[in-house]
Write a structure and sequence with these properties.
There is one protein chain. By secondary structure, the protein is an alpha/beta fold. It has two domains: 251 residues, Alpha-Beta Barrel (TIM Barrel); 72 residues, Orthogonal Bundle (Arc Repressor Mutant, subunit A), CATH 1.10.10. It contains 16 helices and 15 strands. The strands form three sheets. Strands 7-8-6-5-4-3-2-1-9 form a nine-stranded mixed β-sheet, with helices on both faces. Helix 3 links the parallel strand 3 and strand 4. The longest helix is centred in the middle third of the chain and has 17 residues. The model has no long low-confidence stretch (mean pLDDT 96). The structure holds iron/sulfur cluster. The site of iron/sulfur cluster has 11 residues, from loops.
Length: 373
């Protein structure tokens, strides 16, 4: 089944490390909401034969929308797309924007998964990242979500901050595990070009974390979360059994997804396109009945094979029959030598159905894929 992504670009403030398309000026919100509903309807006829089992509101900060704004979007989605009754419906949220009253209202919407951008449980680290919430607020929001009946909760965490110690990262993980959520995503801090953080490094105000320390943090994360009952199913993602994010798995297993809103990327058939990263132009294009993308590509066979291997190894592994069905290639015979190298070095394990990376392999994933495939 396919997935639906909606990009809600509004944020209260811009975090120094953020590379997503997000804006703090909310004056075009009404026009944006009208446009995204129009864009949803625009693609519905072309996708009338598809079934959908995941809807993901990302951003930006989707939790800034109110009940009525979500309700109207859901009506348009459910009126125009075949969304299965058990679909996973996620909203990303900033803990500072969700209180118990709002959560109780949201419980009356189809939302059944909340992803909290917590990042850290240490106030100094949150201030460095220019997050709007405190550690206490984050815990309160997460507990309120669980109390309201949102059972499927994710925490996004960031490690390898400048000056962060292994002990402070361990503390963050312990606090995350204590909250007993179903899913944890733990990413290392990236200095993305164009962000405030990137220019701070250029000016010598901050430095990357030590590479060996970052590796140590990553290895500790894999071990600690595994010991705490979370199964790693992607380089940076860990879930209690049965709570792997269905929507993100679509990206990693090359399933189809349609995406709405500025900067949103879709993958349908063998075409991938990305919408324009400008809210004003996005609204104008949609309102004039034109596609809102600024970039479209057709994925050729070779690219599709490379992506299948790369994304598969980064996540749940490469399934041999799936690979044969998609590319008409026997993976085991075509890649015999790289497979042997991976297994001999302890980077991967294989059974009769698939090959997947070990923890040692995840830690070296990018190098492995680049060198062997
Ligand atoms: S809240 Fe999220 S999307 Fe918004 S600026 Fe911060 S990191 Fe970016």
């Amino acid at each position: 089944m396919a997935g639906i992504y909606l990009h809600i670009p509004f944020c209260d403030t811009k975090c120094i490390y953020c590379d997503f398309y997000s804006i703090t000026n909310h004056t075009k919100k009404t026009e944006f909401l009208a446009a995204i509903k129009k864009e949803i309807i625009h693609y519905s006829t072309k996708l009338s034969d598809r079934k959908f089992d995941s809807v993901f509101f990302g951003g930006g900060t989707p939790s800034l929308l109110n009940y009525n704004e979500f309700d109207e979007i859901f009506k348009v989605l459910y009126d125009n797309y075949d969304i299965s009754p058990g679909a996973e419906i996620t909203i990303e949220s900033n803990p500072g924007t969700l209180n118990i009253d709002k959560l109780r209202e949201f419980k009356n919407l189809p939302i059944n998964r909340i992803s909290f951008g917590v990042q850290s449980f240490i106030d100094e680290e949150l201030q460095f990242l220019t997050r709007i919430h405190s550690a206490k607020q984050a815990k309160e929001s997460i507990l309120a979500a669980k109390e309201t009946g949102f059972d499927n909760v994710n925490l996004d965490m960031i490690f390898a901050l400048p000056n962060q110690t292994l002990d402070s990262w361990k503390y963050n993980l312990e606090e995350a595990v204590k909250l007993d959520t179903k899913h944890i995503s733990a990413y290392s801090l990236i200095f993305e070009k164009g962000t405030m953080l990137y220019s701070m490094r250029d000016k010598g105000q901050v430095q990357n974390a030590d590479i060996e320390l970052e590796q140590e943090m990553y290895e500790y994360t894999m071990q600690y979360l595994s010991d705490s009952g979370y199964r790693q199913y992607e380089i940076s993602n860990y879930a209690k059994p049965g709570y792997e994010c269905r929507h993100n798995l679509k990206y990693w297993t090359l399933e189809e997804y349609i995406a709405f809103g500025p900067s949103a990327s879709s993958y349908i058939g063998n075409n991938r396109w990305t919408n324009i990263k400008n809210i004003g132009r996005y609204i104008d294009l949609v309102e004039s009945g034109k596609p809102a993308y600024d970039f479209i590509e057709t994925i050729d066979n070779e690219t599709s094979i490379t992506e299948h291997i790369m994304l598969g190894l980064r996540s749940i592994g490469v399934n041999f029959s799936d690979f044969r069905n998609r590319h008409n290639i026997d993976f085991e015979s075509a890649y015999k030598s790289p497979i042997n190298t991976l297994i001999t070095n302890g980077y991967a394990v294989k059974d009769e159905n698939s090959i997947s990376l070990t923890r040692k392999g995840y830690a070296m994933c990018d190098e492995i894929v680049a060198t062997l495939f």
